[in-house]
Design goal:
The protein is of the alpha/beta class. The chain has a single domain, classed as Metal-dependent hydrolases (TIM Barrel, Alpha-Beta Barrel). α17 links the parallel β8 and β9. The two termini are 44 Å apart. The relative contact order is 0.14.
């Protein structure tokens, strides 16, 4: 079986190769948004086999296998781990043109030194070779952060989480990277969710506050923000389909919250009023502590009701929501800015037609002594591939300043995903290299290379203060 040569992957010009190999490749990583399990990092978890490390929880791979008609038993079902890996290996040759083809071979090479193209023909051999190597501490959950020179990794954590794993990581001091939590208050905001009442009890228990009315909720939230900050948190994260913006006074928000606590139905407009009120209060807390606020906008989730009821959420049945965003985004940012309480903010969208609009919107609120205070977030989820990344970078460069961009993240549950930073850097250097070759930038590699290094690492280091 022939090898997959990754040396010049996505680097189609001499300038791209110089920028990548001389400037980008050796930069450390700040993975400021991921869904890694901090418990596994705290435990130094050793993965039993390649399927546990590589396939479990990876809905990108699951969707591709379903596209090929692979039975669910070999994806999330009762088949053995080895059978699931063999199914994946058989499928990979059919993925030409999909980023999974590149990611698969980058990950095998960078983790295990395996450069052969994966297929049914060599699947048994690769399964054995990789599983043998998993005894190496460098391939355990904590060791992988050091292997890829990850300087900081920010997990995604519910406000009621006691952050016990984060405390263990910090007190143990054996993990080379700084592992910090991220404050993700979606369940605080989702007032229409069926378990909202029970979650308020859970949150109140974590904050040691009896949440009987809106003032107690706000007190509990402030206490949890303070606790997260003490554990090194410097980012929040919010997930939305459509971004809510329906201004309401405290009296209205108090009445809406009281009805929800009694188990009464709230209307869609009332839910947006409550969400807007609480978001504005949260933004004040973030601003006061110098946090960055992330807004992930535009996912429509769990669309296959039959399979979602069988497998639960995050099983690969989500897609892109098309909707209008400009008025709500401008309105929300303006409401935060009016009292000079707008935190550093990163806006991501799953709907790339909105990139130019978002770039113009965040340009309305830059300043405050922070370089690139508001950011057009990196190409997210379905778009963290070659064309999606190029589109996001071009929009940012055309309308804003790409030199201030804080760069890539994994947004992944998989400890195998750190090579996606390499993939991004190759795309970035490919685009800058084209600009040099076409005369849009000078062939001054020291000048352009330093911008590349900023985007790969240094901008994020300065922006997040981790």
């Amino acid at each position: 079986m022939s090898i997959f040569d990754t040396e010049h992957l996505l680097l189609t010009t001499k300038s791209a190769r110089i920028l990548y190999h001389d400037y980008a490749a050796a930069m450390p990583i700040i993975d400021y948004h991921n869904h890694l399990d901090p418990q596994k990092i705290a435990d130094g978890h050793r993965f039993l086999n390649l399927t546990e490390l590589w396939l479990n929880g990876d809905h990108y791979k699951w969707r591709a296998l379903r596209w090929l008609g692979v039975d669910e038993a070999f994806i999330t079902g009762e088949a053995s781990d080895k059978e699931k890996f063999l199914a994946w290996a058989r499928a990979v040759p059919a993925m030409a043109g999909n980023p999974l083809y590149h990611w698969t071979h980058l990950e095998l090479d960078r983790h295990f030194g395996i450069r052969e193209r994966l297929s049914a023909d060599n699947a048994e051999e690769i399964w054995a070779r990789c599983n043998e190597q998993l005894a190496d501490p460098a391939l355990h959950a904590s060791g992988l952060l050091g292997k890829f020179d990850v300087r900081a990794a920010c997990t995604t954590d519910d406000p009621a989480d006691p952050l016990t794993a984060h405390r263990r990581i910090q007190e143990d001091g054996k993990v080379s990277a700084k592992v910090a939590p991220t404050f993700r208050p979606d369940r605080i905001l989702d007032i229409a969710r069926a378990d909202f009442q029970s979650y308020m009890k859970e949150l109140g228990g974590a904050a040691e506050v009896d949440i009987a009315a809106l003032p107690q909720l706000l007190e509990a939230v402030e206490r949890r923000v303070a606790h997260f900050h003490d554990r090194g948190c410097r980012l929040s994260d919010h997930g939305f389909g459509e971004l809510p913006f329906e201004p309401a006074g405290e009296a209205d928000a108090t009445a809406i919250f009281a009805r929800a606590l009694r188990g009464e139905r709230v209307t869609e407009t009332e839910a947006k009023q409550y969400q807007t009120f609480v978001l504005l209060r949260l933004s004040e807390l973030y601003h006061a502590r110098g946090w960055a606020m992330q807004l992930h906008i535009g996912a429509i989730r769990n669309n296959n009701a039959r399979m979602s009821s069988r497998l639960g959420k995050d099983a690969g049945y989500d897609s892109i929501l098309d909707f209008h965003l400009a008025r709500s985004l401008n309105g929300l940012l303006n409401a935060m800015d009016e009292a000079d309480r707008l935190p550093k903010t990163i806006v991501y969208t799953l709907y790339p037609a909105q990139y130019d609009m978002i770039a113009t919107t965040i340009g309305n609120f830059q300043g405050g002594g922070v370089r690139g205070k508001l950011q057009l977030g990196s190409a997210w989820w379905f778009h963290d591939q070659k064309d999606g990344m190029r589109q996001q970078i071009r929009s940012l460069a055309n309308i804003g300043l790409v030199s201030a961009f804080v760069g890539m993240l994994t947004d992944s549950r998989s400890f195998m995903s750190f090579p996606r930073h390499e993939y991004f850097r190759r795309v970035l250097c490919g685009l800058f290299g084209t600009w040099i070759e076409e005369g849009e930038l000078p062939a001054d590699y020291a000048y352009v290379g330093e911008i590349v290094r900023d985007i790969c690492y240094r901008n994020a280091e300065a922006y997040f203060g981790l």
